[in-house]
Each structure stands twice: as structure tokens, then as C-alpha cells.
């Protein structure tokens, strides 16, 4: 059984790399961001709270995040292991995670802030089916329309320059210290997230010995 954490600033490709790793090794991808977005799209009580938080460029509170992660991992549908992204994001969450689960490695996707701005501000989301697009390398055939369902492509509520600046401050102030906690356990492999996804994935597997 393999259990990995993918960490990195927004736009570093955590979801993409987690998906590629899961596909090859039959692992379950657990995206905390996707779980919260599902609640937002389905207008749950938690979704309303998350929408307000994201629009302000803030991170969801520790208690809510830990409860969501705990509930998801208790489903035990990850027979061969999991890759989790979007968690932990601060020291308290890291300590909670290390106390609760044995992990095999932390994949740190390293991306400079200027590249984060370029990637994130070019992201679009289908308002109907939720398909992700990036206008840099993944433009739809018809501008502003989803290739899958024809729905309108919109900017995520949290993909604004102001919200991004707030999240970067939060990341550098709280999330990067989490890496130091994991490094003390010798769990962390650092990978340059600037190349194309396949190159990044090869680097990840090499450094993890897969």
C-alpha cells in the first residue's frame, strides 16, 4: 500500500500529478479542493461557508478541513493506497495527519510566484460539468465554451488577482513550514513543477523510486 501527499502552491499541478500517479499505481486520488467545490456546486451548508471563504481569498478553517479529510479517509475505498492533495496546509493539520496515518512520501511541487500568477489567472471552469481548462495550453475549440458539454467557461470565484495574492501570502506564511515538519521525518521529495506534466511525473517517480 502506498500513501502520498502532494504539496505545492496553487497552480503547481497538484491535481494533474496526483491523477497521473493514481492511474499508474491504482491509487485513489483525494482532492480536498474538489470535495469543497462539490459542496459549493451542490449548494450545501458547508458549500455556502466555503464559497464566502474562497471569495475572500482565505483558506477554509482547520476544523472543517480536518473533518472533511477524516470523513473521506474513513470510507476505506483505497485498497492500494491514496494520493491526497490540498492537505495539510499548516502545522496543526500536518501534526494531525502524521498522528493519524502512516505516509510513504510527500511530493513537493516547486513553482515560482510569477509562474503561479500566469497559470492561475488563465484557468477556467465549465459552469455546467466542472471540466477544468487552462487557456495557456488547453484552450477549448470554441472560445468560452466547454468541449465536453458546451457549457459556459467561467473564472473560479477564487481566481482573481486579489484572492491569489492573499492565498500566496497564506501559503508562504503557513504552508511552507509544513514541509519543514515533514522533512524532519525525511518524507519530502522536491520537484521542479515548471516543465510539462509528463516530465514532472517522470521526475516524481524517479525520486520516489517507483
From TrEMBL:
Residues 123-158 form the Adenylate kinase active site lid domain. Its main location: cytoplasm. AMP binds at residues 37, 58-60, 86-89, 93, 156, 167. Its EC number is 2.7.4.3. Keywords: ATP-binding, Cytoplasm, Kinase, Metal-binding, Nucleotide biosynthesis, Nucleotide-binding, Transferase, Zinc. GO terms for molecular function: kinase activity. Residues 31-60 are annotated as: NMP. It comes from the Bacteria. It catalyses: AMP + ATP = 2 ADP. Pfam families: ADK, ADK_lid. Pathway: Purine metabolism; AMP biosynthesis via salvage pathway; AMP from ADP: step 1/1. It is found in: Cytoplasm. Belongs to the adenylate kinase family. HAMAP family: Adenylate_kinase_Adk. Consists of three domains, a large central CORE domain and two small peripheral domains, NMPbind and LID, which undergo movements during catalysis. The LID domain closes over the site of phosphoryl transfer upon ATP binding. Assembling and dissambling the active center during each catalytic cycle provides an effective means to prevent ATP hydrolysis. Some bacteria have evolved a zinc-coordinating structure that stabilizes the LID domain. Monomer. This is Adenylate kinase.
